[in-house]
Structure formats: structure tokens, C-alpha cells
Amino acid sequence: MKELKGISLFILALIFSFALMFAFIELPGFIDATLQEKVGFPGFDQGIDEFNAYKSDLFIDSLYLRWIGYASLTLIFTFIVLGFVTKKSGWAWVGAFALFLPVFGQFALSMFFLAGLGILRVGWLPFMDISFNILQLGNIIYLPYWILMWVGGLFNWNAHQFISYFFMAVGGLLFVWGVLVWLQTRFGGSKIASNTIYKFSRHPQYVGWLVWSYGLMLFSLNINNMKKSWSISSSLPWLLAVMIIIGICLIEEIRMKEENGEEYENYKKSTPFLLPIPRWLKNILNFPVRLLIKKDTPSTKTEAAGVTLFYTIILVLLSLFCVDFGTVEQDQLISGPIDLKHQIELVVKEIKITERRNIHKHFNRLKNLGSISIKPLIDLLSDPNPVVREFAAITLGDMKANAAMEYLITLLNDKEARVRNNAAISLGKLRSEKALAPLIYKLNESTEPGIRNFIYSALGEIGSEKAWSTLLSGTKDSIWFVKNSAINALCEIDSEEAAEIIKNSLHDENANVRRNSVYLILKYKIKSLKEEVRFLFEDEDFETRFYSKIISERL
């Protein structure tokens, strides 16, 4: 009978844990898909380019999402404060979970910025109003990950995926084990769980959840899917959620001591708070507590709140060393008197051995060094690594390096599509009519939609009326994004002259073309088309309906 009871509790713990995991992973994705596909929520993104940022700002302003965001964040922190004040940890847990919940949008992968379940990010808008990088003020949390990645690098092993799965697996195991022992304790009639895993941690379920969520967050770090607004960091929300949960643990311990007295105090003395750690490390970690309240653990809710806040501030301040707030990047490769030529040589060497996801940092260093780096960048255009050629082309375009024009023209025939595409983009950024002929020649000989799309964009950036007839022919392209690119380019040259083309495209059978045309009317404030969009108020596409109504209200 005893064995049957143990098996039953184990199954119950598994069911409870799997239900929670489902709620954290599968359920958000399901709700998100339902909202976007069935209800028709739009797919806005933020931080990709100026045009998408403009769309998002319109969406935010029109639905008063900024006010809702501030109210939501206020409500979240009200729950947290209420939990500490009343010592009812459930309130604080709700606040911590609400603060961190949008992070699961990073994992669901289909979530756009403020679309579907991504609307939960509305509570982060107050942070974003200050700076997107504010949300990176928890970057100190990546220290264990960086160390593990460094160890893997010693063996030429990119351990990212393994580390992510390892944390999720260990966290899930700890959580299930903790729930099982907690159930055994409750069904056994005891008030204090103190056996098996509870000998090594006073809060194993919370530890399990924190370790699991850390792995979940790491998993999405390198998935640069533009649809999910990967530019929005999760580190500060995760850090805040963790600190709130730690505060919840402190409050629960105060309540447990009040209810169980000396028995719980003895248990505390023999068992680590969260994880077993060496005494010397425990003394270091406890130093801020002793500094603040002159003892090892808080005994009142005020002390618990103060300790939690104090540690949060310390970790945020430490994170300042890990965040770039948009200032000019300083090269970290050398110290002492600056030898620019030597510095460039070192950066170029780093570029040749760096993986794609980190290579942009080194090219940014070259860009920040100014014109002296143009010749080395031109040399990199002939590098055998296509990733190096691609980023060299991008950087030269950003620097508007006209000296690179003939080399970029040559790259229009590169064997790699990404290199060809970025060469076309960079030629557009040079804004020189000398690039018109080779761009149009490449356009006429190519049947590849990608390169045609980028060449039309480049012609728009150059802004010459000599490209008008070429762009007109592009508005008849059978590929919708190529057609949009040609129409956008015409607007860049002369939006009023392009009004008739936009008017016709409002009737296009493809929703993406209609949607783009509505955006263009808003962007260029083409008042002559204000009345032409009224029939779109009933369009099947949400974004087309939404923005056509804004045109009617604002133009």
C-alpha cells in the first residue's frame, strides 16, 4: 500500500509538472497562433528599419497602447508590493510572472512585436520609451553562460544548444523532484519538507523553475527570426522576475518560522537557501545582507523587501559593464597608445576567425575608425569567406565609401546571393548616378526575385528620375515583394507623381501590396488619396483596414 501511494504521488507530480510546462511552452504558442490566424491580429515588428518602427508607433498611438503599457507596469509592481506588504506571496508571484511572461514570446518564435500574445510586451513599453537597451540591464545573468561557452570554445565546441537544453532538463528534473517531495510531505501530514532534495535546497521548486527558464531564455538567444522582435532583450525582465521570486522565498520563510518556530529555524540552519555552495562563496554573497540589516537573513517583510531591492540594484549596476548604450564602440583588443594601422590589422585577423553571429561587432569597430579603414574593408571584399564579403559590403555602404563603388559593382555578380544583395543595397546608399547603369543592367539580366527586389530599393535610394521607366516596369512584377519595392522606390523619387500607381495598387489582389500602398499614403502624406482608401475599411486584411482608417482620420 505504501509503494502504491508513492507511485501515485510520483505520477501526480509528473502530471502537475508537465501541465505547468505545457502552460509555459505550448499554451502560449497556441494562443498566439489563434490570435494571429483566427482573430487577425497584425504582425508588427520593431527595430528592423525606420518604416517598421513608424508602423509600430502608429499602432501604439492609435490604440493608446503606451498608456495601457504604463498602467500594466504599474499594476504589475502593485501586485509585487502587495505581496511583500501582506506577506501573501501569491500576489508577488503573479507580478513576477506577468513581468516575465512576454519572454515566452521569444520562445514561441511566431510572436511579432505587440501582435498575438506579443501584446503582452505592452508592459515593457515604459522601458522602451527610455531606451531599448534598458532591457539589457540584466546582462550580468549571462555570466555563467559566457563561462560555459568559453570552456566549450577551448575545445572548438559551440556548446550553446547543449547548454540551453542542459539547463532546461536539469531545471525540469529539479522542479518535478521538488513537487514530488512537497506532495509526499503534505499527504504525510508534515508541515516542513526536509527530506531528499529538501536537504540540499529549501526551495527546490523555485530553483527548478529558475534553472529551466534560464535555459529557455538561452535557447532563443541565437534564433534571429525577425518576426519575433529578437532585438528586444529579455535579461532585465528575467533578472527582475528572479529577484522577486527570491523575495517571495524570503517572505515564505518568515511565515514558516512564525508558524513552526524552532523546528523551522533548525531546518534553515542545516539546509542551504537555494543551492549548496562553498562557505567562502556564501560569505561573499551574504555580505550585502549583513551590510544592510546587520544579520544573515531578514526577519521582517520590510527587511525582505529591502534585501531584495538592494541585491537587484547591485546586479543592475554590474550589468552596466555589459551594455552598449549606443556610444561609439571602443576597440578592446589593445591598450596603451593607439596605433590605428596595427589596430586595424588585429580587427581584420579577428574577422577572419569569427563566426557569423558575432562578426558584425568587428566590422563596427572598423566603421568607427573612419576613413582609414576603407582600404582594408575594400580588400575584404575579395575574401574567400562569403560572410566576410557580405559584411564588408554592408559596412562600406554604411560608411558611404564612394571609393568602393567599382568593387561593389563587381560583387553584383558574386556567386553568393547574400553578397550580391548587400552589394546592391550598399550601391544605393552611395547615392551616385554612376551606379545606375550597372544596377539596371544586372536587373535586366537577372530572373532572381531577391536581387531584383534589392536593386529596385537601391534605385529608390539613389533617387534619380533616370530610373523612373525601369521602376515603372517593376510595378508589374508578378512577385509581390518585388512589386512593392519598385512602388516604394517611385515614392522615394516623387511621391505625388507616383500617386496614380499607388491608387491602382490599392486594388491589387495580394493583401501585401494593398497593405504596403496604405503605408505609403501615410508615410508620404498623399492627401489626394485620402478618399480612395474608404473601400478598404472592410478589407479582409487587418492591417489594411486598420491603417486605411487612420488615413481617413489623420490626413
Note the main attributes of this structure.
single chain, 2 domains, Leucine-rich Repeat Variant, 27 helices, 555 residues, mainly alpha, 66% helix
Describe it.
Helix 11 runs antiparallel to helix 14. The protein starts with a helix and ends with a helix. The radius of gyration is 28 Å and the shape is globular. With 555 residues, it is mostly helical. The chain has 2 domains: 321 residues, no CATH class; 215 residues, Leucine-rich Repeat Variant (Alpha Horseshoe), CATH 1.25.10. 66% of the residues lie in helices and 0% in strands.
- What is the total domain count? 2
Number of helices: 27
- State Rg: 28 Å
Number of strand segments: 0
Q: Poorly predicted ranges (pLDDT <50, ≥5 residues)?
A: 107-111, 223-230, 325-338
Helix content: 55-70%
The helix/strand series, from N terminus to C terminus, equals HHHHHHHHHHHHHHHHHHHHHHHHHHH
| Main beta sheet strand tally, sense and closure | none
Oligomer: single chain
What overall form do the CA principal axes indicate?
A: globular
- Please state the structural category: mainly alpha
Q: Which percent range describes the beta-strand content? A: under 5%
Mean pLDDT: 80
- How far apart are the first and last residues' alpha carbons, in Å? 77 Å
List the SSEs and their pairings:
Blueprint: H1 2-24, H2 26-39, H3 50-62, H4 65-86, H5 89-100, H6 104-108, H7 125-130, H8 143-154, H9 160-187, H10 204-219, H11 235-260, H12 262-270, H13 279-293, H14 301-319, H15 340-353, H16 356-368, H17 374-380, H18 386-398, H19 405-411, H20 417-430, H21 436-445, H22 449-462, H23 468-474, H24 480-494, H25 499-505, H26 511-524, H27 542-554
